[in-house]
Structures are given as structure tokens and as C-alpha cells.
Amino acid sequence: MNGKIPIRMGDGELVSMAPEEVKADILAGTREAAENAGIPELTADEQEILFDIMAEPSRAVSVMPGEEVIVTDDGCSMSFYSGQDSGGVGVSMSRQQSILTYERACAADTTSMGHSDYSFKPVKPIINNEMNEYYTISQTTTAPFLYGAQPNMGLYFQPDGPHRNPADLLPLGKIKEAQEVQEAAAFQLREDLVFVGRRLNSIGCEGLNLDTAGSAGDADLRAALEAIGDLREKAPDMPIILGGSGEFVLGMHGEITFKGEQLAGMYPHHQARVAEVAGASIFGVAVGTNTNESVAWNTARTVTFVKEAVAAVDIPVHVNVGMGVGGVPMMEAPPIDSVTRASKSLVQIGKADGL
């Protein structure tokens, strides 16, 4: 490679870069995050550690013994039976078989299940079936067994739901009407999250994962935060993970607040704080991958956000590391070289509590 370092781009392409180019990308990535979120850049020493991780000659890298962290998941067992077009292997297995294989063959720290749509709205009408299957599988698992789904407020808008779609109203200049339908949808979403959470808690749910909260904007995130508060009263002992959907909250409504704080535009350290205030047990930082930049740039940017989020709260922070988030290339089956480098960086430099 003539002294150059093999490294991935954000779309997964394998390229070679000179050491100076990798270091320049690391500096540019951390600077971009720091300027946008108003937080400190990685120190010179941290940037050097990150460079060493990127330049390690091994295909896969790891932290030192004793520095390992817990790994939670959002339906990883689905990969066994889902189609290859979704990054799965397409094996004819039931959910229970997949979960037990993931736990026992892959030595998973945690396991989980969820509806194939992976959203709470379609879970509500079949909650009795989901409760029955969760309870049955939980009798055979040993590792913590979570139930996961996305709040996904978009399903409450037409043509899938009862409310007018703000995406149709906003181009017409109907700002107030678009805000009102988002507020109505958020109220309904909050009720559904609490309904499903309470029912699952009644049969001993070991943890509820509100995955990709805020994907439909600030009203979506507020519904999730308020639902966590409701569940803390009705199911105080059930662990709840709140996973973010991006490095800043989309202001689709623009004026939504939680406990007096505007949600639109919140970066990970602010998101983590409101998650903690709401009563979340774990917060999952999500930082999108720029496909035009290198893994070094994307990882430096992600680590900068994560380091500040970890320092901002007392609850554990688990970073979303996967297909197009957490410094990992945007691919259905991300290469292990990038995944392990991003993971090691997030733990060693970002001080993440889990992945």
C-alpha cells in the first residue's frame, strides 16, 4: 500500500489514504461536531489514539481485556430469519429459535424480540399474541430479554393513520394546521406506548426498548419522553431504553417542549439529559454516517458527540453502532474492519457504557 492506510468510506468503499490524510479527516470530523453542537473537540492526545486505532494493521481490532462493555440490540436475532435484502440470512427459524441461537451460539449479552414491522402502532391490536410469545420465550432465556419497537409517529398520518399528513400541509403554508395534527398524533402515540408497555410489564417484561425515538421529529420524541414518565408511575421497575434517531432532533413542529426545554435542534448531550429527566434507564446516542466522508471522519465526529453525552448524564449511554450510524458505513452488512474500529473508538475515547 506504499505506506498508505486501508480505510473505508461512509458508503463502504475500501480506499487507501496517507497517514496525513487520515489525521486531517479526524481533525475535520471532530471539528464539525464541536462547531455544530457547541462542545469541545477531541484533544490532540485523543485524536492520536483514534489515528492509532484507524491505522492498526489487523482486519479486526478490540479493546484491551477488562475494557469490554455491554452490548444491547434492537432485534439482532431477526437477522437469522429475515431476507438477505435486509441484511439477514433467510433461515427458516421461528422467533424463539432465533433468539435462543443468538443468545447461546453468539453469546449475546442481551436478547430481544419485536413485531416484524418493529413499530408500536401495529403491536397494539396484537398485544395479546406478543405477550404470549414474549412470556413463553422468556421462560427459556438467560440473558436479559428486551421487547423493542419504534414509536414511529409517521404511521399515525395518512395514508397509514387517521391524521392528516403534515408533509402535505407544510408545502401549502399551513404551518398551524401541520403543528396541530402532529400534536394530536403525538397524544395518540403516547397512549399507545403506555398501553403496550403496561401490558408487557404485566407478564414480567425485562426491558422495553423505544428505538429510534424522534424519527418523525420533535413531537415524536416528546411522545416517547412523556410515555416514559407515565410508565415510570405505572411500571416503576421496568427498565426502559430510549434510543435516539439522529445527532440532532428534527424540528418538524418547531415549538414542542419537554419540561420547558425546546426539543428541536437538541444534540446528543441534550437528548441524553431529557431522557434521564424523563426516567429512561439507558439512552442510545444515534449519529448518522456521511457516505461521502471516511470512517475516520465519521468516527471522530461520532466520538465527539458521544464523549459529551456520556459526561452530561448519570445513566448509561449505549451508542447505536450499525448500518449507517455510529461511524459505520451505510451498508446492510457492514464490514468488520469498520465496525470494530468504530466500536473500540467509542469505548476507549468516547467512554461509552455500551453499544
Layout of strands and helices, then pairs:
Blueprint: E1 5-8, E2 14-17, H1 19-37, H2 44-55, H3 78-81, H4 95-104, E3 111-113, H5 120-123, H6 127-138, E4 145-149, H7 166-169, H8 175-201, E5 208-210, H9 218-234, E6 240-243, E7 257-258, E8 261-262, H10 268-278, E9 282-285, H11 295-312, E10 317-319, H12 336-348
Parallel strand pairs: 3-4, 4-5, 5-6, 6-9, 9-10
Antiparallel strand pairs: 1-2, 7-8
Helix pairs in contact: 1-2, 1-11, 8-9, 10-11, 11-12
Average residue pLDDT: 96
Major sheet:
6 strands, parallel
Supply the CATH architecture.
Answer: Alpha-Beta Barrel
Q: Roughly how many Å apart are the termini? A: 32 Å
Can you tell me the number of structural domains? 1
Please, how many helices? 12
The CATH class designation is Alpha Beta
What structural class do the secondary elements suggest?
alpha/beta
| Low-confidence regions | none
Helix-strand string: EEHHHHEHHEHHEHEEEHEHEH
Cα shape: globular
